[in-house]
Design brief:
With about 220 residues, the protein is an alpha/beta fold. It has helices at about 10-25, 45-55, 60-65, 75-90, 90-100, 130, 190-200; strands spanning about 1-5, 30, 55, 105, 110, 140, 145-150, 155-160, 175-180, 185-190. Helix 2 links the parallel strand 2 and strand 3 (about 55).
Length: about 220
C-alpha cells in the first residue's frame, strides 16, 4: 500500500494532518505528485518534512517556477506568493527541489504532475483515448486540485486532489491510497484559520487565502 499526495503549496497545517492520517493507516511509502511550493508561507516546513520522511516526490509547475526563478504565466497572485517563498526558502531545500524528477513509476503505476503531453502544465482530461496511448495500467497526476477516480476498461486514473488548496468545494485536505489494484480517496480537516493567520502575518490580504475556507476554484475578494 502506498499513499499519494499532491499540491501541498506551502500549507504545512494541512500536510501535518494528512501525514497523521496516513500514519494511522500504517502506510510508510508516500509519493508526492508535485507543487510542494507556491501560495502559502510554510514552504520550508513542508520541504523539511518531506525530506526527513524520504517521501518520493516529483516536480510540479510551481516548484519549477521557484527553482528557475521564473513566473506563472496565468496568475499575478500566484507570482506574489512565489516571490515571498523565493525570499525565504533555505538553500538546502532549494537544492533538494532542483533534484526532483519529472516522472516516476511504481510497478504499473505511472506518476506525473500535469500530464504525459506536458508534465508540468497540462490540465489532463481523462479519457480512454488518452490512456490507451500508454502501456501502463494505472495513472496518477495532480495539478487540477480536484479528487477523481476514472476507470476506462483496463486503465484506471486517479487524481488524489490537493493537500494544501482543494478546489472542489470542500475545504478538507485531500489524498489517496493505492494497493496495487485500486485507489481510495480520503479527506482530512485541518486548521485553516492558522494558515490564514500566518498569511496575514506575512503581509498578505485575505484575497490570497480566503479560498481555503471554501475549497474554491478561484480567488475571491
Amino acid at each position: 500500500m502506498i499513499a499519494l499526495i499532491s499540491d501541498i503549496h506551502g500549507n504545512y497545517e494541512a500536510l501535518k494532518e494528512v501525514l497523521r492520517k496516513i500514519d494511522s493507516l500504517g502506510i510508510s511509502s508516500i509519493f508526492c505528485l508535485g507543487d510542494i511550493t507556491g501560495y502559502y508561507t510554510q514552504v520550508n516546513e513542508c520541504c523539511d518534512e518531506l525530506r526527513n520522511r524520504d517521501v518520493k516526490c516529483i516536480l510540479g509547475n510551481h516548484d519549477w517556477y521557484l527553482i528557475s526563478n521564473s513566473d506563472c504565466p496565468r496568475s499575478k497572485s500566484a507570482n506574489d506568493c512565489l516571490a515571498y517563498q523565493k525570499k525565504i526558502i533555505t538553500q538546502v531545500n532549494l537544492e533538494w527541489l532542483m533534484e526532483l524528477p519529472i516522472y516516476r513509476k511504481v510497478g504499473e503505476l505511472a506518476l506525473v504532475h500535469g500530464g504525459w503531453n506536458n508534465p508540468l502544465e497540462e490540465y489532463l482530461k481523462p479519457s480512454y483515448e488518452y490512456f490507451s496511448a500508454y502501456p501502463n495500467r494505472f495513472f496518477s497526476t495532480g495539478h487540477t486540485h480536484k479528487q477523481v477516480i476514472h476507470k476506462f476498461n483496463n486503465k484506471i486514473y486517479c487524481n488524489p486532489g490537493s493537500v494544501g488548496q482543494p478546489r472542489d468545494g470542500n475545504f478538507k485536505a485531500s489524498f489517496a491510497t493505492f494497493d496495487g489494484q485500486d485507489f481510495k480517496l480520503y479527506r482530512v480537516p485541518y486548521d485553516v484559520n492558522e494558515v490564514c493567520r500566518l498569511m496575514d502575518k506575512a503581509g498578505f490580504s485575505d484575497y490570497y487565502y480566503n479560498r481555503l475556507k471554501l475549497g474554491s476554484e478561484h480567488f475571491h475578494v
